[in-house]
């Protein structure tokens, strides 16, 4: 609804008088909002409670104190009954004679979750069955002047999924039957068009929700209504103009087979406001739409380009599109902010395989970012602007330029896409299909066609979206027989093509020809298409994108990682901080990974065992009977996650300009799994459910920095030093210092300084530091010392001594083999650094080199300038940015610091 705009009467009058006619308008399109307080009922159980629309049954039952906070303790399990019974949402509303005088009256649900019968005044209006569709019902004949009743009767989605599954099973079973047992979820979600993760996932609980999750309203008109606007922006072949094709979709008029009126485009460029006015008279096209299409051209000098984060400003321009029927005195408009940019997914044949990278405005760019799971597991809470802004700002702050909106969630709210446009975050947009086979019945495919049409028309104009992709991991699942489909590969392959190619791709191309399209992720792209959409190895390193997970090998060794074209998923689990855990439980015993609480929340099979294995490659866990064991385990799990993803990401970046001897490389993307959380639990997230950055998110600021210097330890323990730059310009005469520290001194043992030119958009090998392997060779970095006694440290400065790349380091051996002395790390001073009392300067002192120094402030929201860092100087200054004005005394009293050898964890 946010996009409807009611221009002031006077302005419109003036406008019309000048441009259109001498007819004086008297009224406008009529909208009657039906949001607000409804009732939610289950008669059998005697519930009749006030409810919110938009909203959902879990939120309503919480507000009415029928159920406790669903995110606390085991309430995901305790409240599951809510999803297994039916719920009615009802309200009354008054309808005026004026509204009823219109010849078209629609009831519009922008989003309804999911299975419902709609009644008005006890008469059947229609049914819904797809959460991702906008439902529009012609309700003219059901309404009466004065009081009316609307009833939305929801059917349990768990029950609905089972019934639909059973019907399908008469033909053949479409697997998987259920989510894996350790998800503690529900079955057959692949048979329904609902957030797939709402029946549980490996990072989230099952909340099979019901409710009216988006606005609902009546709209009345005598002519038509502007329904959707898509904008295809292309650079013309000569290169000096933008061609802007605007498609204006108009609502049908039940009394006519044509729509007349006036369409107005107004584009606010840097130079002037451009206005185009068209008189229209359109009939239905072959797809059944009333669509008015017009291309306008503007000189490129009129607008600035939209650039992703790190490459320039994400310039946006207002395009206002209006439809009016002067004779009927009706007008509706939409205001879009469009961006001028080109996007290309380059898949050129090379000696082995094909390249795979994005080019924006003709600039090849390395995609840096993460995967976004649903903003909330309760759809009604996924619209929260505060959360969305925080998450996207956190992505931007750590130099991300791309996020993937992953296929097991929802098409997110307008706020998310608008924010991504504004922040220059590119979006890889999946359609909502993940980790399953899906049925291919006619009704199901038809519903999906409607869904894709609606979502593409809703989202298409956003410059942030750079790619449409049909599904998550289903090509790999089919090829890899994950769900035992090989008994009839042909059958499931036919279904696959029917859904992702013949339905989704077909519908996308009907509505948007300006973006690349992939059938799956991971996929081999063009090569998968050539292999009838299911490649023999969808995870090939030579084509397309790759998802890579391995929890058995050491995450701190690059030998663990593949060399590929584009890593669109990879990552490691960690536990949230103790403070965050205590928001979901009040029992200290629940911090143990053996507790019923944390076992219920570990949905990844053997998750804690793997975490322990990964920790023990590198670190010595304290004995189980250590009083702080649980805190230390959680903190160590964050160290392991941060360091592993750091090393893996730097490794992918290292390959951006290089091929190895089998032809792998030219890597151009690293999107780790996953940005956010939907509850307090062990997960792959870098930001926890309470919007606290885990250690990995602080590390991302460095490993995604525009320029990095990194050391890659090879199989013979040589360290190859690379400088990788995503910049568009060189940094000449930079100074690279390769420093050797021993663990017990702040003074470097040795230091080598190299003058280098940092080449733009390039990964260059600078030098190799010889082996750490043998013990007493003075040519080696550690000199006469053992490899366990020293580590490498890098700094890169420009000729003005300004930092070019964040400092970095390489540990030659696992830290558990190093005899580290316990440092004393203290906060020695805290100073207020601004007048608003939001920024604080914190001075940290240590008596020897300290590892993974971790600061925390209990109960104060905010972020540190750095955290989890190596401290190689006796003092270090860190800033804390509080979200709100905070007295210094509160900061001082709640600040704490620990490090690898701190005995309290955090
Ligand atoms: C919803 O309302 C209908 C009557 O309109 C009733 O038959 C049905 O039992 C109600 N469902 C629930 C869950 O209360
Ligand atoms: C809509 O059209 C009907 C005739 O079809 C007319 O009676 C009514 O007044 C019109 N409504 C408005 C608000 O103009
Ligand atoms: C609009 O188009 C319809 C159908 O083609 C036609 O019947 C009608 O006369 C046209 N109206 C005007 C004003 O041209
Ligand atoms: C949105 O989320 C924030 C936390 O990020 C919370 O404080 C706020 O209450 C939420 N707003 C709504 C309307 O739910
Ligand atoms: C496999 O499915 C196809 C339909 O796609 C069918 O013709 C064939 O008989 C099936 N084969 C088996 C072994 O069930
Ligand atoms: C903790 O357990 C270890 C053996 O795992 C034992 O050696 C040590 O004495 C125990 N410490 C305490 C404080 O119980
Ligand atoms: C460069 O700056 C650092 C502080 O960041 C300082 O310690 C060092 O002395 C400076 N070096 C030169 C050559 O100015």
Gap between N and C termini:
45 Å
- The global form is globular
| Fold-level CATH name of the domain at 30-217 | Jelly Rolls
- Main β-sheet, in a few words? 6 strands, antiparallel
Instruction: Count the E strands.
Output: 44
Structural class of the helices, strands and pairings? alpha+beta
Mean pLDDT: 94
At CATH level 2, the architecture of the domain at 30-217 is Sandwich
The low-confidence parts are 1-27, 773-778
SS strand fraction: 25-35%
Tell me the layout of helices and strands.
Blueprint: H1 9-19, E1 30-33, E2 36-42, E3 47-53, H2 57-63, H3 75-78, H4 81-84, E4 87-95, H5 97-100, E5 104-109, E6 116-120, E7 123-128, E8 135-138, E9 146-154, H6 157-169, E10 199-201, E11 204-206, E12 216-221, E13 226-235, E14 241-250, E15 258-268, E16 273-283, E17 290-299, E18 317-325, E19 330-338, E20 343-346, E21 357-360, E22 363-365, E23 367-372, H7 385-397, E24 402-405, H8 414-423, E25 426-430, H9 442-459, E26 465-469, H10 474-479, H11 489-511, E27 517-518, H12 526-530, E28 546-548, E29 567-570, H13 578-581, H14 596-601, H15 607-618, H16 629-654, E30 669-672, H17 695-703, E31 707-713, E32 719-725, E33 731-742, E34 750-758, E35 762-769, E36 790-797, E37 803-810, E38 825-832, E39 839-846, E40 850-857, E41 862-864, E42 869-871, E43 875-882, H18 888-894, E44 895-898
Parallel strand pairs: 23-24, 23-30, 24-25, 25-26, 26-27, 28-29
Antiparallel strand pairs: 1-12, 2-3, 2-4, 4-9, 5-8, 5-12, 6-7, 6-9, 10-11, 13-14, 14-17, 15-16, 15-18, 18-19, 20-21, 21-22, 31-32, 32-35, 33-34, 33-36, 36-37, 38-39, 39-43, 40-42, 40-44, 41-43
Helix pairs in contact: 7-8, 9-11, 15-16, 16-17
């Amino acid at each position: 609804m946010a996009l409807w705009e009611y221009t002031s009467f006077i302005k419109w009058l003036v406008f019309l008088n000048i441009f259109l006619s001498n007819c004086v308008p008297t009224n406008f399109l009529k909208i009657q909002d039906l949001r607000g307080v409804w009732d939610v009922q289950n008669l059998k159980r005697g519930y009749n409670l006030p409810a919110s629309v938009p909203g959902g049954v879990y939120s309503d039952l919480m507000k009415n104190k029928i159920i406790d906070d669903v995110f606390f303790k085991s309430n995901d399990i305790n409240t599951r009954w809510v999803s297994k019974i039916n719920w009615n949402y009802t309200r009354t509303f008054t309808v005026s004679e004026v509204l009823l005088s219109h010849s078209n009256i629609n009831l519009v649900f922008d989003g309804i979750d999911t299975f419902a019968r709609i009644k008005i005044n006890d008469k059947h209006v229609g049914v819904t069955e797809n959460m991702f569709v906008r439902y529009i019902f012609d309700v003219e004949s059901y309404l009466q002047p004065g009081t009316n009743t609307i009833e939305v009767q929801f059917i349990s989605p768990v029950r609905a999924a089972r019934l639909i599954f059973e019907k399908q099973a008469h033909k053949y079973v479409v697997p998987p039957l259920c989510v894996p047992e350790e998800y503690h979820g529900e079955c057959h979600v692949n048979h329904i068009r609902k957030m797939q993760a709402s029946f549980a996932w490996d990072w989230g609980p099952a909340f099979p929700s019901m409710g009216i999750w988006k606005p609902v309203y009546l709209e009345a008109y005598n002519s038509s209504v502007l329904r959707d606007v898509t904008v295809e922006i292309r650079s013309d072949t000569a290169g000096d103009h933008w061609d802007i094709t605007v498609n204006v979709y108009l609502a049908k008029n039940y009394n006519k087979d044509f729509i007349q009126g006036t369409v107005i485009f107004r584009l606010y460029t840097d130079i002037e406001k451009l206005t185009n006015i068209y008189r229209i008279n359109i009939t239905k096209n072959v797809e059944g739409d009333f669509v008015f299409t017009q291309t306008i051209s503007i000189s490129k000098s009129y607008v600035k380009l939209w650039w992703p984060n790190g490459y320039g400003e994400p310039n946006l321009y207002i395009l206002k599109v209006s439809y009016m029927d002067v004779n009927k005195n009706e007008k509706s408009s939409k205001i879009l902010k469009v961006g001028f940019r080109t996007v290309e997914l380059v898949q050129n044949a090379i000696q082995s395989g094909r390249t795979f990278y994005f080019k924006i405005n003709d600039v090849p760019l390395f995609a840096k970012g993460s995967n976004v799971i649903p903003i909330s597991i309760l759809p009604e809470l996924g619209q929260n602007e505060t959360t969305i802004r925080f998450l996207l700002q956190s992505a931007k702050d750590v130099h991300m330029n791309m996020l993937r909106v992953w296929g097991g969630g929802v098409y997110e709210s307008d706020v998310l896409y608008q924010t991504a446009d504004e922040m220059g975050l590119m979006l890889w947009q999946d359609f909502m299909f993940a980790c399953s086979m899906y049925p291919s019945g006619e009704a199901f495919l038809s519903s999906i066609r409607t869904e894709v049409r609606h979502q593409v028309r809703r989202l298409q104009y956003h410059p942030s979206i750079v790619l449409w992709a049909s599904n998550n991991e289903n090509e790999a699942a089919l090829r890899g027989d994950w769900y035992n489909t090989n008994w009839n590969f042909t059958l499931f392959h036919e279904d696959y093509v029917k859904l992702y190619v013949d339905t989704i791709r077909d519908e996308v191309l009907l509505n948007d020809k300006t973006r690349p399209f992939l059938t799956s992720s991971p996929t081999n792209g063009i090569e998968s298409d050539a292999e009838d959409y299911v490649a023999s190895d969808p995870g090939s390193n030579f084509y397309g994108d790759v998802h890579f997970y391995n929890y058995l090998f050491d995450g701190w060794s690059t030998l663990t990682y593949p060399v590929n074209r584009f890593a669109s998923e990879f990552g490691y689990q960690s536990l949230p901080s103790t403070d965050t855990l205590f928001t979901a439980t009040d029992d200290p015993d629940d911090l143990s990974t053996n507790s019923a609480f944390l076992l219920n929340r570990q949905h990844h099979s053997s998750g804690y065992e793997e975490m322990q294995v990964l920790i023990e490659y590198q670190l010595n866990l304290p004995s189980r009977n250590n009083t702080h064991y649980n805190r230390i385990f959680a903190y160590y799990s964050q160290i392991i996650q941060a360091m592993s993803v750091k090393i893996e990401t730097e490794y992918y970046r290292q390959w951006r300009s290089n091929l190895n001897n089998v032809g792998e490389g030219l890597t151009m993307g690293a999107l780790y799994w996953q940005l956010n959380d939907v509850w307090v639990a062990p997960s792959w997230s870098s930001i926890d459910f309470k919007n606290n950055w885990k250690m990995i998110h602080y590390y991302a600021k460095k490993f995604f920095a525009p320029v990095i210097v990194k050391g890659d330890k090879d199989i013979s323990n040589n360290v190859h030093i690379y400088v990788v730059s995503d910049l568009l310009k060189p940094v000449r005469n930079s100074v690279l210092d390769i420093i050797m520290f021993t663990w017990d001194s702040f003074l470097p043992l040795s230091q080598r300084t190299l003058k280098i030119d940092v080449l733009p958009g390039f990964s260059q090998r600078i030098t190799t530091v010889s082996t750490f392997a043998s013990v007493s060779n003075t040519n080696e970095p550690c000199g006469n010392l053992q490899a366990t006694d020293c580590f490498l440290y890098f700094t890169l400065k420009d000729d003005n001594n300004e930092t070019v790349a964040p400092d970095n380091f390489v540990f030659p051996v696992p830290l558990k083999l190093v005899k580290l002395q316990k440092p004393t790390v203290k906060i020695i001073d805290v100073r207020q650094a601004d007048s608003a009392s939001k920024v604080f300067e914190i001075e940290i002192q240590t008596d020897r080199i300290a590892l993974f120094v971790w600061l925390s402030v209990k109960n104060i929201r905010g972020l540190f300038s750095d955290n989890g860092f190596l401290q190689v100087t006796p003092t270090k200054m860190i800033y804390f940015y509080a979200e709100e004005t905070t007295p210094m005394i509160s900061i001082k009293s709640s600040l704490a610091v620990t490090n690898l050898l701190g005995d309290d964890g955090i």
